[in-house]
Amino acid sequence: MNLLDKALAPLFPGMVAERLRARNVIMAFEAATVTRTHKAKKQPRSADASLQRTLKSLREQCRKLDEDHDIVTGLFDRLEERVVGGPGIAVEPIPLGYDGSVHVEFAAAIKALWGEWSLKPEASGELTRPQMERLVCRTWLRDGEALAQKLMGKVPGYEHLHGVPFALELLEPDYLPVEYTDYSTGIVQGIERNAWRRVRAYHLLKNHPGDLTGNFSQNTKRVPVEQMIHIAHRKRIGQNRGQPLLHAVLIRLADIKDYEESERVAARISAALAMYIKKGMPEDFVPPANGEVRAERTFPIAPGIVIDTLLPGEDVGMIESNRPNPFLEGFRNVQLKAVAAGSRSTYSSVARSYDGTYSAQRQELVEGQLGYDLLQHEFIDYWCRPVYRDWLRMAIMSGQLVVPTGVDPRTVYGAFYQGPVMPWINPVHEATAWKLLVEAGFADEAEVVRSRQRNPSELKASRTAEVAANRKDGLVFSSDYYHQIYGKNQPNDDEKQRAADAATGVDKPDQ
């Protein structure tokens, strides 16, 4: 209270209270006030407390929609394609020598061994690395998290499928019980942390709680954090477990599914042609004679038919059909736009509608790619980089790879991770733009190759072999510029310079 309020309070307490109330209303945020039209729902609980009772329900709803709802299935299919892609996340090793250049031989050895391990990277040996990554990505986005136990070195009862003793046992998040909490030992929702919230171990169920055996036991085992990979979709600071990507649009998706189902049923009912006979006034009704049995009447439908068997006062009517609903598509599209906005996707990808203009499609593709890139980088940070580094460490420790003396030890684990990139809408324009950037020095050849999801070193080796084979067979193409100009395999330095100047349009005077 100010001085005036304090002076008036003993004499006029009601007026002072009204003044204070009015002052608080003026100073408060309008959005913080609960009104008839604004309920102002609040979330005061921590991230862990918020998910404690809702995580299992959200996860199970998303799984059911992925099983039964075509829109949700297509949404996750597209996220798999844009985050991981068909060939998976490509890993390009870039170990450096002490002079700062890439050690090509060691990088090639790593790449060859990594490709062999990628054929059967997980414990069962049923999935390739791209298949494993797509499955983990789908589980991560749909369920909110995914787990994997690292099988390194000698593991009792397990035989490794490769010379590198490293494999991954994939686990659904159900193996990490959200109900298991023991604050005395630092365990919250199955994850054990120290006083600084650093993860120390995971407490996993020995069996899936929903498997066919009907095992309801909650026996757990403690797995150190060094042997686990936990990829989680988190939305709040300090959040222990991940939440499904569709958590904010679940109700809308369920409503769309129910509404479309109702419209389909209504359309089927309307498609069944039904007619009725209007009897007319009571005095027009002629009762049957004694013993007369009147059979039910039917009218054959045919073009130009004339119905002349009606009784006095009767009329033929038809039940009108107002289906399909002409407003269904517009309503559905608006709802799908909201679904796309809440799931880091794009409307065209969710609805499979590509009828916009070129500019609109490109703008949507560019903005949508930002969301895909974010999820892709999270997947690389959570999953791909730890997997590659642990595999490489085990490959070196087991003797499958020997680090050459010329490699800088600090760069052994260096690698470039490449996922799906934004597709080209107009290949001619895109290729021209890249050509100008390379010629101006604002991009390099490797960047162009990676933009098309290719490995630069592999492409270079393939091109070298291809050019050599073409020259041997007497074939000359525009890509072999030197051979076009000089008609021989190796031009000298002066010829190379003149050819380069001619290719870039530089006209140098004679020296």
What does this structure look like?
- The chain has 511 residues and is of the alpha+beta class.
- Among the domains are: 3-42, no CATH class; 250-283 and 297-341, no CATH class.
- Helix content is 43%, strand content 10%.
- The chain is built from 16 helices and 11 strands.
- It has helices at residues 3-8, 13-27, 47-52, 55-68, 70-83, 104-117, 129-143, 250-271, 328-341, 347-351, 358-397, 427-440, 445-451, 456-472, 481-486, 493-504; strands at 90-93, 145-152, 166-171, 187-188, 191-193, 199-205, 220-224, 228-232, 275-278, 315-318, 415-418.
- The strands form 4 sheets. It has a 4-stranded antiparallel beta sheet, with no helix packed on it.
- Helix 4 (55-68) crosses helix 5 (70-83), helix 5 (70-83) packs across helix 7 and helix 8 (250-271) packs antiparallel against helix 9.
- The model is unreliable at 507-511 (pLDDT under 50).
The SSE order reads HHHHHEHHEEEEEEEHEEHHHEHHHHH
**Rounded average pLDDT:** 85
Tell me the span between the first and last alpha carbons. Answer: 91 Å
How many helices in DSSP terms?
16
The structural class is alpha+beta
Shape: extended
Q: What amount of the residues lies in strands? A: 5-15%
Please describe the biggest sheet, giving its number of strands, its sense, and whether it closes into a barrel. 4 strands, antiparallel
**Percent range of helical residues:** 40-55%
Radius of gyration of CA atoms, rounded to a whole number: 35 Å
Q: Which residues form runs of ≥5 with pLDDT under 50?
A: 507-511
Order of strands across the main sheet: 4-5-6-7
Number of DSSP E strands:
11
